[in-house]
Amino acid sequence: MSDWADRRDALVDQLTSRETLGSETVAAMRAVPRHRFVPEGKRQAAYADTPLPIGAGQTISAPHMVAIMTNLLELAEGVRVLEIGTGCGYHAAVTAEVVGPENVYSVEYHDDLARQARETLARTGYGAVSVRAGDGKRGWPDHAPYDRAYLTCAAPEFPKAVVDQLAPGGILLAPLGERRQTLVRAQKRDDGSLARGEHGHVRFVPLR
Ligand code: SAH
Predict the structure, then answer these.
(1) What do you get for the CA distance between the two ends of the chain, in Å?
(2) How far is Cα of residue 31 from the mean position of the Cα atoms in its chain?
(3) For a disulfide at 181, which of 162, 175, 197, 205, Cβ 3.0-4.6 Å?
(4) 3-202, which class in CATH?
(5) Cut 0.85: pTM above it
(6) What is the rounded CA–CA span in Å between residue 147 and residue 57?
């Protein structure tokens, strides 16, 4: 057990030496047991800074990407978050560490991934995270408005429903584009328009 914690600490030390990360982000990355979210056969690689296959042709993002996104979202305790693309649930758990699990709502396209993510989140202490199987392009209207929303899959543009479900002043984050994507953060103004900023080139699986 402590072996996994040691490996995780070494990974987070490596991340903090390369990126400027807030203390909440660092604490969350140190807390969430990534090895319990990846398939059995991939556990030995859980604390390398690399994406890994999680089934259904999907991948868990590399740890540095989860850390960078957590930082850009400016999360804090009590902030309500919509995630599109639950995958194995790891990123949702990192978000939950900062905002509280009951404030995280996540939508996953693949039924089997949604079910597995729910199980893993429950086993690791994040059972209060809400996971729904469905099309994230429609967001999750039942629990709107959200203070933050992010996509872990690439879209041509922020889905309109997701923008609509974001509170004024709220922050959106997504990889936008086709093959070559840009990580775009946007803040919703009171008039509903978006103030955008770009945060480098990235590569994610596509939104369906
Ligand atoms: N955050 C995840 C990474 C998942 S990869 C993790 O920590 O593991 C992106 C995920 O987005 C995949 O699981 C994929 O099935 C999902 N996805 C793709 N299109 C989607 C859509 N339209 N709605 C919801 N989820 C979608």
Answers:
(1) 37
(2) 15
(3) 175
(4) alpha beta
(5) yes
(6) 30
**Ligand 1 atom closest to residue 110's alpha carbon, by position in its atom list:** 15
For ligand 1, say whether the CB of 121 is within 6 Å of any of its atoms.
no
Contact 148 CB / ligand 1 (< 6 Å): no
Express each pLDDT in 167-190 by its tens digit. 999 999 999 999 889 999 999 999
Residue to mutate, 35, 38, 54, 58, ligand 1, most ligand atoms under 8 Å from C-beta:
58
Active site residue 17: no
Give the separation between CA 207 and CA 156, rounded to whole angstroms: 9
Which pair of structure tokens corresponds to residue 191? 């008039």
Cβ atoms of residues 29 and 15 within 8 Å: yes
**Which of the listed residues 70, 82, 86 should we mutate to test ligand 1's pocket, taking the one with most ligand atoms within 8 A of CB?**
86
The full DSSP string for 120-164 is HHHHTT-TTSEEEES-GGG--GGG--EEEEEESSBBSS--HHHHH
Please give the pLDDT value at position 103. 98
pLDDT of 2 reads 73
Which CA distances in Å does 87 have to 2, 7, 18, 196, 207?
26, 23, 26, 26, 12
| 136 CB near ligand 1 (under 6 Å) | yes
Q: Rounded to the nearest 5 degrees, what angle is found at the Cα of 49, between the Cα atoms of 52 and 125?
A: 70
Residue 30's φ and ψ, nearest 5 degrees, are -75, -25
Cα within 13 Å of Cα(55), Cβ side: 18
Distance in angstroms (rounded) separating the CA atoms of residues 80 and 101: 10
